[in-house]
Design brief:
This protein has a single domain, classed as CBS-domain, CATH 3.10.580.10. The protein has five helices and five strands. Helix 4 packs across helix 5. By secondary structure, the chain is α+β, with helices and mostly antiparallel strands. The longest helix has 25 residues.
Length: 143
């Protein structure tokens, strides 16, 4: 299955933050929106980073409560790993596992199209396995 199919099924909503927003404000948004990461975009809507719960925990561990008032740009990951809509689930699972990341923004020609999480990919792989098992069961029972 391709990433474009996952986005078609789950939608293309991406929660974003600006680099100047406080770590505290972004943490509150992550909590209220029930997501693990947000894409950080500049005024031109270009992706400049991604901030995850891990990034927030890291800044609080390093700086204590004072880290919460700092701009999210100080703790976001700047070297963003992207996915393209024509990539396979298997390719993304390998990339995410190798790099130990849980979220990949999906872009085409620099345009943000959506985001996929490791949970999205696992859900897809499980659905594929169930469909294959059901198909095999139907084949066997049909004789």
């Amino acid at each position: 299955m391709l990433v474009s199919q996952i986005l078609k099924d789950k939608g293309d909503l991406v929660f974003t933050a600006s680099p100047g927003e406080s770590v505290s404000a972004v943490a509150a948004l992550l909590h209220s929106r029930r997501v693990g990461a947000m894409v950080v975009v500049d005024e031109a809507h270009s992706v400049v980073g991604i901030v995850s719960e891990r990034d927030i925990v890291r800044i609080v561990a390093e700086e204590g409560a004072a880290g919460l008032s700092k701009p999210v740009s100080i703790c976001m990951t700047r070297d963003v790993v992207f996915a393209e809509p024509n990539e396979t689930v298997d390719a993304l699972m390998e990339r995410m596992t190798d790099r130990r990341i849980r979220h990949l923004p999906v872009c085409r020609n620099g345009r943000l199209l959506g985001i996929v999480s490791i949970g999205d990919l696992v859900k897809t792989k499980i659905a594929e396995a169930v469909a294959e098992a059901d198909g095999l069961k139907a084949y066997i029972t049909a004789g």
